[in-house]
Design brief:
Strand order of the largest sheet: 1-2-3
Order of helices and strands: EEHEHH
Shape: globular
Strand content: 15-25%
Largest sheet: 3 strands, antiparallel
Number of strands: 3
Structural class: alpha+beta
Distance between the termini: 22 Å
Radius of gyration: 15 Å
Number of helices: 3
Length: 105
């Protein structure tokens, strides 16, 4: 299930990612934070920074986490070797999503 649409751009150190457990689900929280070195560990301070810019991914099974990890690894391999898989479809989908998010701001 997807509720709402968001666009997250990673690579500038201003996106924090936190994985945890809650009520028997795996939970991944993606949140805009103050820029910092990419890969440095920092737990978001929700009391100070609020929840309004968070994206929550909730996983009911380990297999669904494995599926996301596999796609991230595939993307990493493509980036490392400069390979674009399904580039036209991906670009069109991404452009459409960005436009929808901009209209809804």
């Amino acid at each position: 299930m997807i509720i709402g649409k968001s666009y997250v751009e990673c690579g500038t150190g201003d996106v924090g990612v936190l994985g945890t457990m809650c009520d028997d689900y795996g939970v991944l929280i993606i949140k805009e934070i103050e820029p910092r070195a990419i890969g440095s560990l920092r737990t978001p301070n929700y009391e100070k920074e609020g929840h309004d810019s968070s994206i929550i991914m909730r996983f009911a099974s380990q297999e669904s986490i494995d599926s996301v990890i596999e796609q991230l690894m595939q993307m990493k391999r493509c980036m490392r070797h400069g390979i674009e898989l399904n580039a036209n479809d991906t670009r069109a989908c991404l452009n459409q999503l960005i436009e929808e998010v901009k209209r809804n701001k």
